[in-house]
Amino acid sequence: MSGNENDGRIVSHRAPEPVGAFPHARRVGNLLFLSGIGPRVRGSSSIPGVELDGDGVIRSYDITLQTLAVFENVRTVLEDSGSGWDRIVDVQVFLTNMKEDFVTFNALYAEHFSENQPTRTTIEVGSLPTPIAVELKVIATVGEIG
């Protein structure tokens, strides 16, 4: 973990690099706000379950592999920020194809959030910054609350 003690910025050296000028997370008091986290692999442009054509356009993708990779990347950022999966309090889900992917995503989500059940909003978007089909934005707690 690395960060600026004065402003709460946190950059994980294990999670995929952000695709813009923003940290993986930011801590404010006992709350941790994660930037949008996708399924990319650190140190490469590789995306689990995605097949691109020669022009970089998505030919096919596997929502299961992408969702599991997103969950793992979120878990990594949480751990590197001093939090954990069980400390998640709110999740925003961005899907590029709600009609085709929601049922599969929802089943995987239910498996991974069977104990901790944070609030959740799921939104369909036209595209995401890289050729991915799912991204999560998470709020979690750090340290003692109350």
From TrEMBL:
Q: Name one GO molecular function term.
A: deaminase activity
Q: Which CDD domains match?
A: YjgF_YER057c_UK114_family
Matches recorded under Pfam families: Ribonuc_L-PSP (PF01042)
Name by which UniProt lists this protein: RidA family protein
Superkingdom, taxonomy of origin: Bacteria
Q: Name one GO cellular component term.
A: cytosol
Please tell me the species this chain comes from: Candidatus Polarisedimenticola svalbardensis
InterPro entries membership: RutC-like_sf, YjgF/YER057c/UK114
